[in-house]
């Protein structure tokens, strides 16, 4: 991937997966809010659009710059901790892998995290990046204050309330401006006790509803066409650090099994896609059962060096079992050549005009395709299936959504667009991709 530190005007810009490429005419790395204001005014006066690049880890074109790319790579770090209210204020460019150790020094940790920690905090909260846990919302739901520079170049600090601006900022895809600082609700430092097991799909489905309430985090990996699933369960406990030796061993295991062996299987499937179903079953049969304990930020993320494309949808939690039965029935027919496991997680319902989980506890189902293998017709089938379940896509992942579908799935979309127009009347943050996605 290109490096934000070395970027030059007119050079190639690409996301992590490599499926989105652009050649922005200008790339800016501001070091202060004043410099951000100047870039926004410069863009507005020249009628150019800006997209902020976080860590470019979105699979969709949400971060794709048309004219001007801006990165907050030079605006990172912890600004302050309010221990009494359990809140931390961070610069928007701070990467998640920096946040764990920064908060731990003050005795705090993030409420939840997803699979990886390469994203920037502003990028993560702009797309509703989530982990798993039916009592927990996305990273966006932890935000209590947003500090942003709008499309007029005006700096705002907004404390979360029940007002339209809060609902619009909750998940905004950077359409209201540049998020320069965020304040997050944090928890006293905690560890996680992780247990990874193998089970049958039949057992998993029969116990899913109770299981997700008995553990703080439950995550499934379903191997296409296989009767075996991997279940990862995690629960919070008093802080215990992993020893350096244990960290080393865990890392080797993850690199060799989850990445090394899986890379070899994936290359085989790329060479002969018809082997995908057999390889999926082989991977399922070799799921490693494991147990580990460590500080939360050491346990949530895993290294992901096998590259892929991804589509992910939130559906009502009550529909999860039925949806999985349908997915399994389809894979058993053997028409789709997919070996990459589906990842199933849960979240609490939350606020936000653009939140995929608004109003309901949700199950997220993520569908992957190895980089270099065609994601079609798989993703088209996924999209059609998800329409049946009124699935709302993760904005940072691939989908086939049209503006008509967005308007049908998001009842408050007009309110969002009204707030957007108020804070960005000259459409500095509204690229063609976003216009096509939101304007009928
Ligand atoms: C390997 C991998 C694993 C992943 N795992 C998960 C997971 O477990 N859970 C999950 O929910 N998602 C996951 N994702 C998706 C990822 O978390 C989101 O797409 C996230 O938005 C990426 O953050 P980023 O910093 O790279 O932002 P980018 O992709 O660079 O940007 C995302 C959006 O935020 C905007 N933005 C970024 N910074 C700012 C700012 N300062 N101000 C205003 N707007 C801004 C961008 O313009 C864009 O619209 C994963 C992605 C990958 C590649």
Automatic annotation (TrEMBL):
What are the alphabetically sorted keywords of the record?
A: Flavoprotein, Oxidoreductase
Pfam families referenced in this protein's UniProt entry, alphabetically: ALO, FAD_binding_4
Keyword GTP-binding belongs to the record: no
Q: Which GO terms describe its molecular function?
A: D-arabinono-1,4-lactone oxidase activity; FAD binding
What's an example GO cellular component term for this entry?
A: membrane
Q: Which residues form the FAD-binding PCMH-type domain?
A: 20-189
EC number annotated for this UniProt entry: 1.1.2.-
Return the SUPFAM superfamilies for the record.
Answer: FAD-binding/transporter-associated domain-like
What name goes with this protein?
Answer: L-gulono-1,4-lactone dehydrogenase
**From what organism does this protein derive?**
Lysinibacillus sphaericus
Which taxonomic lineage is given here?
A: Bacteria, Bacillati, Bacillota, Bacilli, Bacillales
């Amino acid at each position: 991937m290109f490096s934000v530190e070395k970027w030059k005007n007119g050079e190639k810009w690409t996301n992590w997966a490599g499926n989105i490429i652009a050649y922005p005419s200008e790339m800016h790395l501001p070091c202060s809010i004043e410099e951000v204001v100047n870039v926004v005014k410069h863009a507005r006066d020249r009628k150019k659009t800006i997209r902020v690049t976080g860590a470019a880890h979105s699979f969709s074109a949400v971060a794709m710059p048309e004219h001007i790319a801006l990165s907050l790579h030079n605006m990172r770090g912890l600004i302050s901790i309010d221990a009494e209210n359990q809140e931390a204020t961070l610069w928007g460019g701070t990467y998640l892998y920096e946040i764990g150790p920064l908060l731990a020094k003050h005795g705090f940790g993030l409420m939840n995290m997803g699979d990886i920690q390469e994203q920037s905090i502003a990028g993560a909260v702009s797309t509703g990046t989530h982990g798993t846990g039916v009592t927990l919302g996305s990273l966006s739901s932890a935000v209590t204050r947003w500090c942003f520079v709008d499309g007029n170049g005006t700096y705002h600090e907004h404390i979360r309330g029940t007002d339209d601006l809060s609902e619009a900022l909750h998940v905004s895809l950077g359409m209201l401006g540049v998020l320069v600082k965020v304040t997050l609700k944090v928890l006293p430092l905690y560890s996680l006790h992780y247990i990874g097991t193998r089970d049958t799909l039949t057992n998993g489905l029969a116990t899913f509803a109770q299981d997700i309430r008995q553990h703080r985090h439950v995550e499934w990996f379903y191997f296409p066409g296989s009767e075996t699933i991997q279940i990862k369960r995690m629960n919070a406990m008093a802080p215990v650090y992993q020893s350096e030796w244990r960290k080393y061993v865990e890392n080797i295991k993850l690199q060799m099994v989850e990445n090394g062996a899986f890379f070899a299987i994936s290359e085989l499937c790329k060479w002969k896609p018809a082997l995908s179903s057999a390889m999926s079953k082989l991977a399922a049969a070799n799921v490693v059962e494991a147990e580990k304990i460590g500080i939360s930020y050491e346990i949530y993320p895993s290294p992901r060096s096998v590259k892929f494309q991804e589509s992910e949808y939130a559906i009502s939690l009550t529909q999860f079992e039925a949806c999985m039965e349908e997915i399994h029935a389809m894979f058993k027919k053997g028409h789709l050549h997919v070996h990459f496991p589906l990842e199933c997680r849960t979240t609490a319902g939350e606020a936000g005009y653009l939140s995929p989980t608004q109003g309901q506890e949700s199950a997220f189902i993520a569908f992957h395709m190895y980089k270099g293998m065609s994601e079609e017709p798989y993703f088209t089938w996924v999209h059609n299936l998800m329409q049946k379940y009124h699935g709302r896509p993760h904005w940072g992942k691939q989908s086939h959504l049209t503006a008509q579908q967005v308007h049908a799935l998001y009842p408050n979309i007009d309110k969002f667009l009204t707030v957007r127009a108020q804070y960005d009347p000259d459409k500095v943050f509204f690229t063609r991709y976003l216009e096509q996605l939101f304007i009928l």
